[in-house]
Design brief:
With 227 residues, this protein is an all-alpha fold. The protein contains 11 helices and no strands. It has helices at 4-14, 29-34, 41-54, 56-73, 76-88, 93-113, 132-142, 147-169, 174-183, 185-197, 208-218. Helix 3 (41-54) packs antiparallel against helix 8 (147-169). The longest helix is centred in the last third of the chain and has 23 residues, at 147-169. The chain is globular and about 50 Å long.
Length: 227
């Protein structure tokens, strides 16, 4: 059950103001908007829905869940396995660097926020690249955030960042962005339920569109975002 302290910790972890640099990434949206693939709120909604159901964020959230469970058990070997798995699932250098940069930033922040004596498992990541999903899972386990709540927070944070990028790039009004986030709630809940039950051997995604957008974005002439 989500108690008040766990709820506050989740709100902090999932906040768009968390200093991990999430705001500087567009998840390929900048290229798609420039090419006219995404022109309005409805286009953005369809793209986010598809990503939540079968895209890279679906895999990330599933890895985050496995990280949370492994961290709760103190299973460092399992954490390293899923960290390597997450790195290998990245199809472009930009996407891999994004995950590492955000993950390393969150791990540094996490270690700065809690007493050293209580961060034993987190110290294993000080000398290697850590994916954001792994760092989020470790923090969620430490603060005893229930698994379903952690997944919803993770997905909501990602969705909020994508909408924030869309508001700037399309552009959309702030009210339209908030309406879009509200309309996506059923999709977020359904995705979280599916992630809770998917087996390791069934983890898969369809991310070729994101990968192509990411590769084109790397050499895009004019851009606001890092990826």
């Amino acid at each position: 059950m989500l108690n008040n302290f766990s709820l506050l910790a989740l709100l902090q972890l999932a906040s768009t103001s968390l200093p991990v640099g999430a705001y500087s990434y567009s998840e390929g949206l900048e290229f798609l908007v420039e090419q006219g693939v995404i022109n309005n709120a409805e286009d953005l909604k369809k793209w986010i829905e598809s990503s939540l159901q079968e895209g890279g964020i679906y895999l990330d959230a599933a890895v985050m869940l496995r990280s949370l469970r492994a961290a709760a058990l103190g299973d460092t070997a399992r954490l390293k396995y899923w960290n390597n798995w997450a790195s290998a699932s990245r199809e472009t250098e930009e996407l891999r660097q994004q995950s590492w940069q955000m993950g390393n930033a969150l791990m540094r922040l996490f270690l700065a926020l809690i007493p050293d004596s209580e961060a034993v498992i987190a110290h294993h990541w000080q000398e290697q690249e850590c994916n954001f999903s792994i760092a989020f899972g470790i923090a969620a386990a430490y603060w005893q955030i229930p698994t379903e709540s952690a997944i919803l927070g993770y997905l909501q944070s990602w969705t909020s960042n994508c909408i924030g990028a869309g508001v700037k790039l399309i552009p959309l009004g702030q009210t339209a962005g908030q309406q879009l986030l509200l309309n996506l709630q059923p999709i977020l809940v359904a995705a979280a339920q599916d992630i809770l039950t998917v087996a390791d051997e069934d983890l898969s995604s369809c991310t070729w569109g994101l990968s192509l957008a990411s590769m084109h974005h790397e050499t895009q002439y004019s851009r606001l975002f890092r990826s």
